[in-house]
Amino acid sequence: MSWQPDVATLGDLADTIAAAFPDDVITTQLSRGELTVEIQPGAVRRVLTWLRDEPAAHFEELVDVCGVDYPARLPRFDVVYHLLSLAHNQRCRVKLATDEDTPVPSVISVYASAGWFERETWDMYGVLFADHDDLRRLLTDYGFEGHPLRKDFPLTGFVEMRYDEAEKRVVYEPVQLRQDWRSFDFLSPWEGGTPEVLPGDEKATDAAETKG
């Protein structure tokens, strides 16, 4: 028998946290057995501390911190904190909105594991975290340009890395591939269908006819 979350309990928790932080909680939403709380950015430490220490919540584990990019929206980014209560077997999602210039308070003092998660969020999205004592790249190289999970980041990147046989070392060079050199039909097998012969398949057809 699969476990089902106690929706009534999470609903009560949503009302409790909204009452405890009337100026900081923007909205609460209960969906698919999980609670989402949207808050003001400056309140993130006190809200997460309350969710960790309040017996009715007891979200003692920070599962991850991630970013979401909405390029057409101001402010552009969401920072999302996923919490887990092992005591109550429940999950809570806390999110806040920010931009690329306004630092979000670090929550390392609340959850020590946030240090790695905040570094990844900065690396991938460029979201700054105030009071983080080691905010540097985590998944990309230290000389990497840009933040690759932003929606406007080019798929080819800005630079390419290769081993130069003549210089006997790894070199970085600007990407030279121009967008107008590519050919996209923007079709999928479910929407627009595919041609009878896909690019490259004609080689196999020609080889079969030659053998015949």
Features:
about 210 residues, alpha/beta, 5-stranded mixed β-sheet, two-stranded parallel sheet, about 20% helix, elongated
Descriptive report:
The chain has 212 residues and is an alpha/beta fold. It is built from four helices and nine strands. A five-stranded mixed β-sheet has the order 1-2-5-4-3. Strands 6-7 form a two-stranded parallel sheet. Strands 8-9 form a two-stranded antiparallel sheet. A hairpin with a 4-residue loop joins strand 8 and strand 9. The longest helix is centred in the N-terminal third of the chain and has 14 residues. The mean pLDDT is 85.
Q: In percent terms, what proportion of residues is strand?
A: 25-35%
Low-confidence stretches: none
Average pLDDT works out at 85
CATH topology of the domain at 7-136: Beta Polymerase, domain 2
Could you say which structural class the secondary elements and strand pairing correspond to? alpha/beta
| Cα distance spanning the termini | 60 Å
Strand order of the largest sheet: 1-2-5-4-3
Query: What level of helicity do the residues show?
Result: 10-25%
SSE order, one letter for each helix or strand = HEEHEEEEHEEEH
- What is the CATH class designation of the domain at 7-136? Alpha Beta
What sort of overall outline do the alpha carbons produce when their principal axes are compared? elongated
Rg for CA atoms: 24 Å
Instruction: Output the CATH homologous superfamily of the domain at 7-136.
Output: NADH:ubiquinone oxidoreductase Nqo5 subunit
Number of strands: 9
Q: What is the name of the CATH architecture of the domain at 7-136?
A: 2-Layer Sandwich
